[in-house]
Design brief:
Blueprint: H1 2-7, H2 18-45, H3 52-55, H4 59-67, E1 74-76, H5 79-89, H6 98-120, H7 132-155, H8 160-163, H9 171-190, H10 196-211, H11 239-244, H12 246-271, H13 277-293, E2 300-302, H14 303-311, H15 318-334, H16 343-355, H17 360-369, H18 371-386, H19 392-411, E3 415-420, E4 426-428, E5 441-446, H20 455-468, E6 474-478, H21 487-502, E7 506-510, H22 514-522, E8 532-535, H23 538-547
Parallel strand pairs: 5-6, 6-7, 7-8
Antiparallel strand pairs: 1-2, 3-4, 3-5
C-alpha cells in the first residue's frame, strides 16, 4: 500500500471538507488568475502561438499535481524554460510556424520521457552535477537576455537592429508598457497577494478597446482560439533534427527540474517532510507529456506562482485543482477578453517576473566565499550571454568547469602534519607553529577518502617527509577522516607498509573506521606485526606518542 501511495501521491491527500475547500479555492483562484496572463506572455517568449501558454497551464498542471510528491507547486509555463525553448529552436524553424510548434512539442516529449526514466531509475542524484554558483550565473544571464528580448515591445519599437536605422517609437505602446510595469512593481511590493496581473490585463484590454489602440497601429494579442485543445501528435522531424534537439533536451530537462527543486525544497521544508525528488521527476515528466499532447511546450514549476500559492494559504493539491478549473473556465468563456491586450503589457508582465532573478550581489558574496567558484560563475554568465541564442553552452561550460574543479580537489587532497594544539585538539602543525608530537614521529592526517584519486598524493606525502627527515622512526596516521577506501587505496596502503618495514619504521593507525579496517584486513594488509599499532581514539594515539618522547635525565 505504501508503494502504491508513493506512485500515486494524490491518494494521500486529505479528505476535503467545507473549511479546507474554501481555503484551497481562494488559493487556487489567486494562482489561476495569475497563470493565465503569464502563460500567454511566456508563450510569446517561447515563440509559440499565445494560446498554447494557456494550454500548458491546464492539463499539465493537473497531471503534475496528481503524480508529484510536492502537491503545492504551480506547474505550467515559466520564463526560463520558455526562453530555452525559443533559443533552442532558433535557426531550425520560423517562430510560430507549424514546424516550430512540432519541434517544441518534440522537446516536451523528449524532456518528459527523460525525466520519467530518471525518476523510475532513482537517478535524481544526477541533479547534483549542477552546483549552485553555475545555476545562479546561468539564471541571471538568462534573465538579462529575457529582459533584452522584451524591451522593444515594452518601449514601443520593433526590434533592436532597427532602432538605429528606423528610430520609430509607438508612443501608445510605450505608455501601456511603462504604465503596466510601474503598476506591477508597486503592487508586488505593497499588495503581493492581490491579483494585480489579471487586473492590469483586463484594464489594459478595456482601455485598448476604448481608444482604438489596435486600429492606430498598436500590437495586441489578437484573436485566440476558444475551447479545449485538440490532441496533438507531431510529425517525425528526421534523425538530423533529432540530433540537434539532443543537447537542448538535456539542458531543458536539467534546468526545468532545478527550477522545481528550488520550490519543492521550500514546500517540503514547511511540511516537515523529506523531498522525494524521484517522484517529482516522474510527475514533472508526465506533465511535459501532457503539454506535448496539448500541442504546447515543456512546462516546469514556477517559483513565483508556487510562492504565491503558499502565501495564499494552499495546504494540499486541491488548490491546484481549483486553479485548473479557473483556467478551464477562462479558456471556454473569457478568451475574447484577451484580444485587445497590448503586447507591451505582456512584456511588462515578463519583465516583472524575471527582475527578481537578477542579483549582482550574489557574485560579490560568492567571491568572498570562493574565488574559484566566483570565476566559474562569471565565465558561465559570460558564455551564456555571448552564446545566445544557444544558451545551453553556458550551462555546459559551467558544469564542465565545476566538475574539473571538483576533480582537481579530489586529486589534490588536503594532507597535513598535525601537532597538539593548546586546546587539546590535533591541528595543522605548520599553520599553528606547533611542535611535533615526538622528535622522531611524523603524524599526518588526510581529509579525504583513500581511493584511486588520492592514493598517489598520500604515498608521496609520506615518502617526501621520510626522505627529508631520515631520522623518522614512527609514522602516525590519523585515519578517522577516511570513510572510504577502494582497491587502489588498499594497494597504496600495502606499498606504504612495505616501504616502512624496509626502513624499520613503525606505523601507528589512529581511529580507523570499521569499513576501511574490514577491507584492509580482507586484503591481508593489517596482519599482526611488531611495527603496526592500532588505536581506536586520538586520546590513545596521543598517549602512545607521549611514550615516544625521551625522558629528560634527572639531576
Amino acid at each position: 500500500m505504501s508503494r502504491i501511495r508513493r506512485m500515486l501521491p494524490f491518494l494521500a491527500w486529505p479528505r476535503p471538507d467545507a473549511a479546507l475547500l474554501r481555503g484551497e479555492a481562494m488559493a487556487g483562484l489567486t494562482v489561476g488568475l495569475m497563470v493565465i496572463p503569464q502563460g500567454v506572455a511566456y508563450a510569446a517568449l517561447a515563440g509559440m502561438p499565445l494560446v498554447t501558454g494557456i494550454y500548458a497551464s491546464l492539463l499539465p498542471a493537473l497531471i503534475a499535481v496528481l503524480f508529484s510528491a510536492s502537491p503545492r507547486l504551480s506547474v505550467g509555463p515559466t520564463a526560463l524554460t520558455c526562453l530555452l525553448v525559443g533559443a533552442s529552436l532558433t535557426g531550425l524553424a520560423q517562430p510560430g510556424s507549424q514546424r516550430w510548434i512540432e519541434l517544441a512539442v518534440w522537446l516536451a516529449l523528449l524532456t518528459g520521457l527523460l525525466q520519467i526514466v530518471l525518476g523510475y531509475a532513482r537517478f535524481g542524484w544526477l541533479l547534483n552535477l549542477v552546483n549552485s554558483p553555475v545555476l545562479m550565473a546561468f539564471t541571471q544571464a538568462a534573465a538579462v537576455l529575457i529582459i533584452a528580448s522584451q524591451l522593444p515591445a515594452l518601449l514601443g519599437f520593433s526590434a533592436w537592429d532597427t532602432l538605429l536605422t528606423q528610430p520609430f517609437v509607438h508612443w501608445p505602446s510605450l505608455a501601456f508598457g511603462l504604465g503596466s510595469f510601474a503598476l506591477l512593481v508597486l503592487a508586488r511590493r505593497w499588495r503581493p497577494g492581490f491579483p494585480t496581473v489579471l487586473t492590469v490585463v483586463v484594464a489594459s484590454a478595456a482601455i485598448s478597446w476604448a481608444v482604438g489602440f489596435e486600429g492606430r497601429g498598436g500590437a495586441v494579442i489578437g484573436a485566440l482560439p476558444q475551447g479545449l485543445p485538440m490532441p496533438y501528435w507531431p510529425g517525425w522531424p528526421g534523425w538530423a533534427t533529432m540530433g540537434q534537439l539532443l543537447v537542448p533536451t538535456l539542458v531543458i530537462t536539467l534546468v526545468s527540474f532545478l527550477e522545481t527543486a528550488s520550490s519543492a525544497k521550500v514546500d517540503n521544508g514547511q511540511r516537515g517532510q523529506r523531498w522525494d525528488q524521484d517522484q517529482d521527476l516522474i510527475g514533472q515528466g508526465l506533465a511535459k507529456l501532457a503539454s506535448a499532447i496539448s500541442g504546447a511546450f515543456p512546462t516546469s514549476s514556477s517559483f513565483s506562482r508556487s510562492a504565491l500559492n503558499l502565501y495564499a494559504g494552499a495546504k494540499t493539491g486541491w488548490a491546484t485543482v481549483f486553479s485548473v478549473a479557473v483556467v478551464l473556465i477562462t479558456l471556454l468563456l473569457f478568451i475574447p477578453v484577451l484580444h485587445h491586450v497590448p503586447l507591451a503589457v505582456l512584456a511588462a508582465i515578463v519583465l516583472v517576473a524575471v527582475m527578481g532573478l537578477i542579483k549582482p550581489r550574489a557574485f560579490v558574496h560568492l567571491w568572498k566565499l570562493s574565488r574559484v567558484e566566483a570565476v566559474i560563475a562569471g565565465i558561465t554568465f559570460a558564455v551564456t550571454v555571448l552564446a545566445a541564442p544557444r544558451l545551453y553552452w553556458g550551462v555546459l561550460a559551467g558544469v564542465l568547469m565545476a566538475l574539473s574543479h571538483f576533480l582537481y580537489l579530489r586529486l589534490h587532497p588536503r594532507i597535513i602534519e598535525v601537532g597538539l594544539h593548546p586546546d587539546g585538539s590535533l591541528r595543522d602543525r605548520h599553520l599553528w607553529k606547533l611542535p611535533p608530537l615526538a622528535p622522531d614521529l611524523f603524524a599526518l592526517r588526510m581529509d579525504a577518502a583513500l581511493d584511486f584519486a588520492t592514493a598517489n598524493g598520500f604515498e608521496r606525502a609520506v615518502s617526501e617527509h621520510i626522505a627529508a627527515h631520515p631520522g623518522t622512526r614512527h609514522v602516525m596516521w590519523i585515519a578517522h577522516p577516511i570513510n572510504w577506501i577502494d582497491a587502489t587505496g588498499a594497494e597504496a596502503f600495502a606499498r606504504l607498509r612495505a616501504q616502512l618495514d624496509d626502513q624499520r619504521i613503525e606505523l601507528h593507525l589512529v581511529g580507523i573506521k570499521l569499513p576501511v579496517e574490514n577491507l584492509l584486513r580482507a586484503a591481508g594488509h593489517l596482519d599482526d606485526s611488531p611495527r603496526l599499532h592500532l588505536y581506536r581514539t586520538e586520546a590513545e594515539g596521543l598517549r602512545a606518542a607521549s611514550r615516544l618522547i625521551p625522558e629528560e635525565p634527572s639531576i
